[in-house]
Each structure stands twice: as C-alpha cells, then as structure tokens.
Amino acid sequence: MNPPPEIALAADIARRAHLGQTRNDNITPYAAHPESVARRLRGEDGTVIATAWLHDVLEDTAETAATLRAAGVSDAVIDAVRCMTRQPGEPYEDYLKRVKAHPVARKVKVADMLDNLNDSPGEKQILKYAKGLLFLLDN
What percentage of the chain carries pLDDT values higher than 90? Predict the structure, then answer.
C-alpha cells in the first residue's frame, strides 16, 4: 500500500536532505531516525506523519520553509516543522513551551524524544529527555 502523497513527498525530502548524515553510531543513515519517528506515530493523520519525516530538516539540512513550500509541502506541515526547529540561542525551556502549545509538534516531539532514547544516549541526554517528556506529557 502506498502512503498518501504528502507523506511520500515528506519521506522523499527527508531521505534526500539527510543523505550523507549518520546517527550517533556514525554508521546508521540519519534518515532512519525520521522514519522511526513516523512509524511511532502510525495511525495519526497525514500532517503528523509528514511532520515526523521532516522534523529535523530545517535545523540540520539546507532545506528552508521556502524550499519545502516550493516542493509542495502543506503550510500545516511547514508550520509544525518550524515550531519544532529550535532557534540559535533559544533557551530549551522556551523551546519546549512552544512545542507543547502546538498539537502536531507536541506529538512529534514526544515520538522524537522516545526514538532518541533508543540511540545510545548518554546520562545527560537521558535526563534531558526524561524531563522534556514529563513536561510535554503534563496536561
């Protein structure tokens, strides 16, 4: 079964944008991460899944909101990805507050943190993600 067009587009952009990047082990292609985050969100709507695929492209690649829009990515997905993109110098707490306020970004960030916890994190990262998850999941 083929994924909906926007999800397929997002997956293609993420795979291309992250080409040559690897995870912390310096072996696993980085694109395996957004793929895993998207899999964790299986059953969610297309905006959530497409955002999962693209959640790191603005922060870690040459992609911009304009290039995503030109490629055909919806404004809803671009808005969520922009929300998830931490700005230089932005305090982590402020970043998490912004993400928590955006329903799509919040879902994807939780899945992102859970996936990052499976990537041999150090003690400092484990603590950071644990605190972040408690904050994001607190109603």
Answer: 91
* CA-wise closest residue to 21 among 64, 84, 81, 63: 63
Residue 102 scores a pLDDT above 80: yes
Question: What is the distance between the alpha carbons of residues 51 and 34, in angstroms, rounded to a whole number?
Answer: 9
How far apart are the C-alpha atoms of 84 and 109, rounded to whole Å?
7
What pTM was computed for the model?
0.95
- Structure token pair of residue 82: 């922009």
Structural domain including 131 reads 5-137
Average pLDDT score over residue span 67-91: 97
CA angle 61, 65, 69 (to 5 degrees): 120
Q: How many domains does the chain have?
A: 1
120 Ramachandran zone, left/alpha/beta (phi>0; psi -120 to 50): left
